[in-house]
Amino acid sequence: GSAREELTRAEGRIKELEDTPAQKPPVRGVFAVDKEFLKRIQDNETKEKEEIQTELQRLENAPLDPNDPEGIQRSQQIGRLKFQLTRTS
Question: 83: which DSSP letter?
Answer without folding.
Answer: H
